[in-house]
Write a structure and sequence with these properties.
539 residues; mainly alpha
């Protein structure tokens, strides 16, 4: 192979990968948020989750993209591992559609696809048409990349060096390892399978060896998910391990089956076209693996927990994210249902107040563990917020008095204020992280002033949650006094900050963070006042 042919091969691979990326992005944009909504809502049944995984992966043309979305949902607590594994199984089938499509020889029409897609994307004003144009253009790039790859690969059949290399792959174990490594490098099982498919079509790779490369590609495809899980929490990491365990189990089962049954002979009999044989192998392996593993998914999930055991605080987080009081809103009297809503909101308020306190502690005494703790609790508050709001909608369908409707409205607004306090807690740890990364710090005087304001804001939030829970309004004068104090501190601290800037006693980055922190503390105090007065009847 000459240097020009090698560069042509690299260009073909690049165009193929870029085409897949463009097509995937176009499909996601044209579907809007529907893909994630479907993925989140339609996974309560494991079989339905498999079908959703197939459909999603066919749409986005990437099992990795689907699996990364799954990691995100598991990471946020919106999806359990039992739901995630169904989508992962489906994604393994859906990703085989790429090889099936590329088995068709439509090179003649590729320029037309590129032209049509470019016209739609560049000259049409409608966003949906533009997104569809990017899909068509990506589709054209994909096939053009394959055409270039095939042309570049053809001379390899006459290369003694390459033929000798392929001879080393006649050992199934080595072929399997090469398939894993090659796919891990490309980070796409679809891409590596299409390349192996092209090798077979050009006659430089035997079908029997290509089979083991395809099996290895399935394991190597987990690489993007493992990388994505590095920044995820323990649940997100578990979903990546779950995917890896599934693909290893799949590889073991398939290797056993093809060595004790005439499966490969049957697959080869399905078509005389070598490219189609590889595509069919990819699809049939995936379907067989899903059928065999589907009944034992619970065991794979248990095995996942042996690698990353569940910690006590995780159990607490899982319990916190479930509704405790509003579980039977349609089966209890309206007054009781509304009281349950108040208790649920108060419980969420206690979690948000704790998060606010932990965030302030992290700001003045930073540690990555504290940051992770606040982020975890913020996710809990967000999940509770959505769950309570959904339950409140059900409450409004009951036969309610005017007073009950007022209380429902007040609780709904209070829940929003509570959620915003936790949002500000998240802002505070971002400030702390930024100061740590930029290696900057506040002056002693600025830190002291900020800590005093933070303590007052924190006390106001805790008092507000207590008033909301007990509806004991004797403490309203106290919270009003705290609110006035925080408002006064906001003005004083900003004035002092300006003075320090004028005297060059403040680092620029620290000064910006100081100002933002003051704003967040004051807004938390404002939300606290709203919560304290939420259920009080106005004269």
């Amino acid at each position: 192979m000459t240097i020009a042919q090698f560069l042509s091969l690299l260009g073909g691979v690049g165009l193929f990968l870029f085409g897949m990326s463009i097509m995937s992005t176009g499909l996601k944009n044209s579907c809007g948020d529907n893909l994630q909504i479907i993925l989140e809502k339609a996974t309560t049944n494991k079989l339905v989750a498999v079908l959703v995984g197939i459909a999603m992966t066919v749409l986005v043309q990437s099992s990795s993209a689907t699996d990364v979305m799954v990691i995100g949902f598991v990471n946020s607590g919106m999806m359990t591992l039992a739901q995630a594994i169904g989508v992962i199984l489906g994604a393994n089938i859906g990703t085989t559609i790429t090889a099936q499509i590329t088995a068709f020889n439509i090179a003649t029409f590729t320029p037309l696809l590129l032209f049509a897609g470019a016209v739609m994307y560049l000259f049409m004003k409608n966003n949906l048409v533009k997104h569809i144009g990017s899909v068509v253009m990506g589709f054209g790039m994909l096939f053009q990349g394959i055409t270039i790859m095939k042309a570049a690969i053809a001379p390899l059949s006459k290369s003694e060096v390459f033929v000798n290399f392929l001879t080393t792959l006649r050992n199934p174990f080595l072929a399997l390892l090469f398939g894993i490594a090659f796919t891990a490098l490309l980070q796409s099982s679809s891409s590596s399978t299409v390349i192996f498919q092209a090798f077979v079509v050009q006659g430089i790779l035997d079908y029997d060896i290509a089979v083991y490369l395809v099996i290895g590609a399935a394991i190597g495809s987990v690489t993007p998910n493992l990388l994505a899980a590095l920044t995820a929490n323990r649940n997100g990491k578990r979903s990546a391990i779950l995917n890896l365990l599934f693909n290893i189990t799949r590889a073991i089962l398939i290797v056993i089956i093809i060595n004790v049954t005439p499966l490969l002979d049957w697959i080869q009999s399905t078509s005389t076209d070598p490219g189609r044989q590889i595509a069919n192998t990819h699809t049939i392996f995936a379907i067989i693996a899903v059928c065999l593993i589907f009944p034992i998914t619970d065991y794979i999930i248990k095995l996942t927990y042996t690698f990353i055991p569940e910690l006590p605080e995780e159990t607490r987080a899982a319990e916190d994210r479930q509704l405790v009081f509003m579980t039977q809103v349609n089966n209890v009297p309206p007054n009781m249902a509304i009281h349950q809503a108040q208790l649920e909101a108060a419980r969420m308020g206690a979690i948000a107040a704790e998060n606010f306190e932990k965030a302030i502690d992290c700001f003045f005494d930073y540690s990555p563990e504290k940051v992770e703790d606040v982020e975890e609790r913020e996710e809990t508050v967000n999940i509770l917020n959505h769950a309570i709001q959904d339950a409140m909608v059900k409450l409004q369908t009951l036969n309610l008095s005017a007073e009950n409707l007022r209380r429902i409205s007040a609780i709904t607004i209070a829940v929003t204020d509570i959620e915003r306090i936790s949002d500000h807690a998240e802002n505070i740890i971002e400030y702390a992280t930024r100061m740590k990364n930029k290696k900057t710090k506040l002056s002693k005087k600025a830190a002291k002033e900020l800590k005093e304001m933070a303590e007052n804001s924190m006390e106001e939030v805790e008092l507000a949650i207590d008033i909301f829970t007990s509806e004991n309004y004797e403490n309203l004068p106290k919270i009003e006094k705290l609110e006035s104090k925080v408002d006064k501190q906001e003005k004083q601290l900003i004035n002092h900050h300006v003075e320090r800037l004028m005297e060059n006693k403040c680092e620029p980055i620290a000064g910006v963070i100081f100002s933002d922190m003051v704003t967040d503390l004051e807004r938390c105090a404002d939300h606290a006042i709203n919560i304290a007065y939420a259920l009080k009847e106005h004269p």
